[in-house]
Fold these 4 entries.
Entry 1:
Amino acid sequence: MYLTKEEEKMYQGEYGDTVRKSMEIIVALGDIYGAEKLVDISSAQISGVSYKTIGDAGLEYLEDLANDKEIIAKRVVTKIPSTLNPAGTDLDNWEKLSFPAEFALKQNDIVDAYGALGISKTCTCTPYLVGNIPKFKDHVAWSESSAVCYANSVIGARTNREGGPSALAAAICGKTSLYGYHLENNRKTTVIVELNDEISGIGYGALGYLIGKEIGDGIPYFILKNKSTNDELKSLGAALASSGAVALYHIENETPEYDSAGKEKLLNEDSSSKINLNINDIEDTCKNLTNSSKDEADLVCLGCPHASLEEIKDIANLVNNKRIKNELWVCTSINIKAAADRMGYTKVIESAGGHIVCDTCMVVAPIEDMGYEIIGVDSAKAANYIPSMCGLEVIYDNAKNLIKFE
Ligand code: F3S
């Protein structure tokens, strides 16, 4: 692989061991995937944050890095905006929300170690809602699969599905290897998906789940009957990336590469396969995403991917002046919660008995140790992961059906 003189110095250890090791990860990946050179990135988004997923070994590794005086002193770390994926707790309010203390303290140590490396302690899977937002065609290194899908598809930035270590290495070096979705030729559609009826709400998650399962790491080109909101697109991408390994989709007349390239340029010559769906396929998938025989959840968890201000507003309208019977978490980032506080949405939700939970989510939090058994979600990604990652039952439905009132 070709390296510039500066990259060669980084690779040879002139900027210290941490930079050298990070460059080794980036170059090794590039060699595996046939990259000819590196490319500068404009932002990083790093997974591997929850204590539930990285444990003590991950914490020790990060603390070792954070104690590397050489990289801190030389300020070589994170010259670009870098944010974290959700952690396992609400970092500030873990006690009030009854997160286990031992877990919460270790979690804060993990986030502090990332902070010492210069990475923003903003823990969210929707970095694009809180200022970590690339421009069209920017190269970035993001690792949260739903955010990768959003960055590639809705924003038109270029990122592979990075792992936690490779995204951290990219954040440290400000570079990644030029392969995969960074190359125009690899961004063409592999299958056309035409939906013959209009969809909304949880229908987008069901569509993503169905197609992700069918096409694995393919690139779908959707022809939809109706326009989508940004929130619906984040649900679609999250589901595509969880049942399959989709990192990029196009929607006719909607996503930016369709506009700039036109239909023909996005179609591979051999992408003749086509999937036709109607509303019955979507409704059947919605039903199949529920694995509980009960019709009431003891914890309703909304905000997967992390809720936008508009989604929080809708929930506030739904529960206004009512008393919620089941527990309600609305997961989001601290930034969006601050906006919700100012708008009065937090007060409305809390007055009804619900909580806005920051920094974490229903999948990476230790909800299986918190006494819950049936989780209600309006996210196909969460419905897909909760049974396997938390061992709990799940109900997939719209918020207005999941939330029960006294
Ligand atoms: Fe985000 Fe957690 Fe869902 S990381 S995409 S809220 S599973």
Entry 2:
Amino acid sequence: MDVLLLPGDGIGPEITAVTRNVLEALDRSFSLGLKFTSEDVGFASLEKHGATITPELIERARKADLAILGPVDTAHYPPADQGGINPSAALRINLDLYANVRPSKVFEGLPALARNMDLVIVRENTEGFYADRTMYAGTGEVMPTPDLALAMRKVTRQGSYRVSAFAARLAAKRRGHLTIVHKANVLKLSDGLFLSEAEKAAAEQGGLAVREEHVDAMASLLVRTPDAFDVIVTTNMFGDILSNEAAELAGGLGLSGSLNVGDENAIAQASHGSAPDIAGKNIANPVSLLLSTVLLLDWKGAETGRSDLQQAANRLDKAISEMLKSPDTRTADLAGSLSCRDFGSVLVDRIR
Ligand code: NAD
């Protein structure tokens, strides 16, 4: 089974190295038959190939059995015509990874703002308000005059339906509760379209308790009653923002896994950014990328009927939860004392 690692920028290489060591340990324990390749993406690719991601790499990712992408420092890339392409967006669009699955849960023994929470945000991943992925040509932002900037948001019937159907299936496998988050009271056409398709997908799934919330109310409700939610489906930017809020409620940004999923492919990707402020210091928390890898192994296991991949995912998930119980086995962002590499070494020992 071919594993493609794309370390990315900032803390990406550090957390990807830990993820590789952990996967190698799981490979030894479960005889998964993993073969690893690492390819440059982000600044390393810009230097070598003149672009932060190349068409060849996108095709390579399409063919990989398991693909893992580190965070990318898009804010510091040059303009697109000088090679600064958002690799994350390019992969999501080209591989049609339309659902971004972002679970957040409270871990036993780990201090968190939320007392009790175990939810999954399913965020539409290929359209919405992100200017670099809403247009066939050009971008979704224009400046008709020096004093006027406009941003366009794309919401399609098909895009809204398929992500909602995905979320409804997930809710049916979990606790059977789906919350549709929107702002259709103001964005009557665009969010109205999203809402009607989400309602349709939820009704077709059948047997779900369905709730609808405006995004601003949802931001409060997540803090007030985080335990009231199971699966939440929403548009791209709302999902991006709410999932950071949920991660923080669970204990921190370094804690939440994220999987980009389509009908054919999936890519694991940490839900946080490249954290340039701590890059190279060996203090980053690798848990988000590791939990993304748990999601990826589980997805691949379900797709291929390989229970060994799901068992490996389960063992990794449990070992991470065990480590988070004690400050002695946490990283600095969680008031622990382990470095990024040491967290990886202890984890490797525990999953043998
Ligand atoms: P960020 O998520 O990189 O960092 C926010 C804060 O959280 C920083 O203080 C950082 O040190 C901390 N943090 C993040 N991940 C951590 C981890 N694993 N362990 C410990 N601390 C962690 O967000 P930002 O500073 O807004 O963005 C930095 C760059 O990342 C920008 O170029 C942005 O565009 C990009 N970005 C990329 C992704 C992605 O690749 N998926 C997502 C968000 C932002």
Entry 3:
Amino acid sequence: MEAIAKAHTNIALIKYWGKRDEALFLPMNSSLSITLDKFYTTTAVQFCSCLKEDVFLLNGQLASEDETLKISHFLDKIRDIAGQKLYAVVNSVNKVPTAAGFASSASGYAALAAAATKAIGLEIDNKTLSQIARQGSGSACRSIFGGYVEWQKGEKTDGTDSFAKPVGNEQEWNLSILSVLVASKQKKVLSREGMKRTVETSPFYAGWLETVEKDLSLARSAINEHDFEKLGDVVEANALKMHATTLGANPPFMYWQSATIDVIEHVQELRSKGIKAYFTIDAGPNVKVICQQKDEQVVRDLLLNVDSVEDVYLCHPGPGVTYLPASTTENGSKLLFNRFHQANCARTISRNL
Ligand code: 2P0
């Protein structure tokens, strides 16, 4: 019972910001993203009756007890659906610069959901897989699909209508996304905590909810029409509105640092020179800049020249979840599994499945 899956990160053009149900990861608003080609997670999962607990290896190291428990709770949801009580070895390799503040929870939970459901023998479609991935991390549901993806928030309390789907039939529009790493200090408010505090305390959150559906509809039509300026305008406006809600929270907080504003100003300067580039920012100081492919080198070169910029990663729309042959060596899953199987060295967490 082993499977290996690969999933890519995604960048939100219209942001997911706020939950209506924290246990089921149901969002307050729908969101829209591009799956990126450059950053991904590969995860191997093997269930076996010989294991006394779940084992989680991250980038070749045994993960902490806290990290392992999070993975275990997520696997519990999959075990419940499958009616199985077996523990698993999860072996995950992140090709995401996490230390640089680029989030890996989307690709991480998308790959884990795909590998675990396959390894346990569930035959499900990508819509259902997206619903399962959502319950590990909201944005993970969008990483099941490639290209431009919309997560429809749904209305039902059980979450069965809250899942991601590709936007129209759009596969072809090959925009460029530059992930700009700025010289950053430690991030203080995690996105999960930040969105909760904003929903509960920010008077500006109502304004966010009032306008986000309109932003989404503009973005959807811009993608279908390949209207880059229309897309860029709404992407920037939506990001600024999301960040404005944090300033009204109690206590207030902001994800931007001086370097963030530096990059914003350089993008605006590019536009004043006629080069169409637009920024968006997630729950951290780094900036993502979208532009058309014909401009990607000039935009990248200019950003690399900004003093506070440490690196610029050039990305394009990437694929959805794929499954890899069990012999794939990147994870060395067989070897690792055998190690845990034979040595029977797993720490025991007394939980009754
Ligand atoms: C997004 N972010 O749409 C938004 C924009 C951050 C800002 O999704 O609590 O890691 O695990 O559901 O998905 C980051 O939040 O949060 C996020 P959880 P997640 O990409």
Entry 4:
Amino acid sequence: MGEKKKNIAILGSTGSIGTQALDVIRANSDAFTVEVLTGSSNADLLIKQAIEFNPNAVVIADESKYQYVKDTLQPHDIKVYAGAKAIAEVVEMHSIDLVLTAIVGYAGLESTLAAIKSGKQIALANKETLVVAGELVTALAKEKGVNLYPVDSEHSAIFQCLAGEFHNPIEKIYLTASGGPFRGKDREFLSTVKKEQALKHPNWDMGAKITIDSASLMNKGLEVIEAKWLFGLKAEQIDVIVHPQSIVHSIVQFTDGSMKAQMGLPDMKLPIQYAMGYPDRMKSDFPRFNFINYPQLTFEQADTKTFRNLALAFEAMNKGGNAPCVLNAANEVAVEAFLKDKIGFLQMSDIVEQCLQTVHFISRPSYTDYVETDKETRRVANLKMRNTQ
Ligand code: NAD
Ligand code: MG
């Protein structure tokens, strides 16, 4: 680490990634300070974090909580703002060195673009931004000289394998997938599963949306598209392999046939810390891997006939344009409906598929086109859902 501390803005500090990032910062207070914290509606947690980490500013997205947060933080020297626009504005603060984008879903797009526009380095957890508008985001980052450091464990693994190899072409990558709680199950079984079962992930403790995405393999589909943009790959260079132990976090295969993998216990704090500390590896006391506990590491093909979301994601990626944006918006609506017990597990893929077929295709979308596509897809998805009930 250099002498100067890195000033971090955490967008989505009250979530699973956000709170773990604060754990990393707490353990490395010599290296990092917190400049900005933002949350959606959990005002009490945001206030608690603000009092502990003393940021320059906090933003609560839910405007109805503004007065409460402001009044409670009154004795502290912390600026308080509210609303989605304020999140996109606060990232422009000159004092910020790095923005960790840990908002979930499409809602993170505007603030991520704003952060890149103002030249901030990005630790990217919000994979949906790259799924929705990967071309726009990566082009803007290139123009502004901004690095996108991956936080997603698979992409962090690829990034770690590429250290010292950035000049060497990649032949292909293997993204590993745990397979989620329903690995090996058939469609008949899946037709009856409820959210309580889907929310029990075998290896990772994450936010609700990504946990459902992991159970349906949509998460891996989103990650395939995320990898395409982060590493500049073609569809045929990206493969998915199911690895239930989640120890090998992903693999790069180079043009000489050599394969490099990154391994470790499944713990998001490691990729979060790597992204925030890059290029340094900082000492940690995270639990260490022990071979005795893992006599076997196994690998198997993903079942895309049962878990159609993965196939749909490849389809959307191959189609390009606004198709991945459609895929993402339809999925966000479907997951929310599944979490409210409004639709069944398998219907989530039906809605995504129907939206991909219905929503108007745009081959070279602008930012406004993405905004419109997201809106239109949500409208269509809600309509299809009403018709299938
Ligand atoms: P989460 O639901 O636990 O947290 C989401 C955060 O975003 C919260 O702070 C919430 O207040 C905020 N938020 C939600 N909606 C918002 C809105 N409309 N406006 C402003 N803020 C909003 O989610 P998470 O599991 O921490 O995931 C965050 C992102 O990181 C997702 O894109 C996810 O795919 C990615 N990710 C998560 C994990 C993990 O282990 N949790 C791993 C890899 C990638
Ligand atoms: Mg992941």
